[in-house]
Amino acid sequence: MTSAQDDAPAGSPLTGDVAGQAVRAQNGTPLLEVRDLTVHHGQLRALDHVSLRVFPGEVYAIIGANGAGKSTLLRTISGLHRATEGSVLFDGKDLTGVRPERRATQGIVMVPEGRRLFGSLTVEENLKVGATYARQGQWTIERVYELFGWMRDRRRQLTAQLSGGEQQSVAIGRALVANPRVLLFDELSLGLAPVVVQRIYAMLPQILATGLTILLVEQDVSQALRVASHIQCLLEGRTTLEGRPADVTPEQVEAAYFGLSSAPAGQTGDEALWTGSTTSSRGS
Amino acid sequence: MDWVNDVIQGILTGGLYALFACGLSLMFGVMKVVNLAHGDLAVVGGYVALGVIAITHVPVLWSFLIVVPIMAVLGYGLQRTLIQAALDRSVLTTLLVTFGLSVVIENALLQFVNADSHSLGVNNSIITASFSLGSQIQIAYLLLLILAVAVVLLLGLQYFLSASKYGRLIRAVADDKEAAQLSGVDYRHVFGIAAAIAVGSVGLAGIAQGLYSQFAPTTGTDTILLFAFAAVVIGGLGSLWGTLVGGIVLGVAQEIGSQINASDGFLAGYIVFLAVLILRPQGLVARGAQS
Fold it and tell me: For residue B141, what is the domain's CATH number?
């Protein structure tokens, strides 16, 4: 337990970070792009003209409080929600009207919030379902068993018999065997003990090393800042902050997260300023 | 000795009821669709068998080789069009749509065939023959055959669901179709396959009904659907082996009921059905080898 905890925050996630930045700097075309996305839940506007660009090899983290629209954003990218306005582009192709299963087979695979394993299937069967329509790639069920050492011995168990962290690992494995190009993580840490969360996040470098790109949604801001190469904060469906973790101060994150105008007077409405400045710095 | 005979006859009839119930249970277990046109589809299966036998002159017992694939294609088509469209709206809509389908099928049969009753294989000796067990018990080959078919069907389905790729996908989609989509599974197609299996088995039920007694356009709702429902509820909704248990319990209850009073057979069956609903609403075999 302790060793796992010790491993986790150590340099490894940072290598992912640095690698991501390097890629971002040298590669001009985003793998996944969201343009001016607006999504409604009935009357409620869950997302309001949100844009983002995820470059290959990045760990892109969306942070924000409950109800900020983070999960809606991921669910819209994976096709489970329909956008009212705006578009999602994958590898330059517009995905509007493309069904979730087609997006998955094209390489956008989500680990959904709450894990959503197939409860009447065994661990191995869950992985097999994930692999049924997999793209070509290096992830196989064997490889997942190597990544999560305990899994092979318990592959014949029903997933209900697993702990929360183990279930989350199976959910990640199920997504990996599809050989995604972009892996979407929706609230990996939800309902899990901090130690377990650390251990799961400690796997990210190994996953990234196989050439994946990760877009994750996380309520735990410090966790997101630790692993991400780029963060974007949502508040009530709008982007309030965007940038590299190294470039944002805790105060800015706090203000963007809670929507507090803790910043000095005269700087309210600076969400546009923040978004604008980071975007322009990126463009150069 | 009468009682032993009742139980044995009840078990044999239970095979027929299990055959009726299997498709209904599968459709509910996978798609959460209560298919009110289930019985009418069985009757359609009976008429298809009549037609197939008239045209190709296949022996009646082998007609299923043609009827089942036809019914399976029909099931896939119905699921991908009408039932899926209803499911996209709400699960309740499927009740209305399948009820409507039931009415349409019945009236179409009255319109284009006629209201006469039909049987299959009237002059076939296997169908009417029986053998004796002791002095009191007569066992009809046909009912034994139907029971065997029901058991083989359930075993086959069980194996298919647990060991094949599509069986696994069917179980996954029944658990969580959205999560399945995220793994690249087109759940509509998987639903279609489940419906093909269900309606294919309904074709078998239609043939069995035609062999055992007779069918007319209204037999679907007034006999087959009712017995299928009773068997499914007694056994446990969505449970595969529950349909066999339910069918047998229903059959035995009916036999014992008619032993007490010749006209009370069906009544006894429905009393058991109600008792199960009240005392054990999840059914006798709750979520066992379910789909």
Answer: 1.10.3470
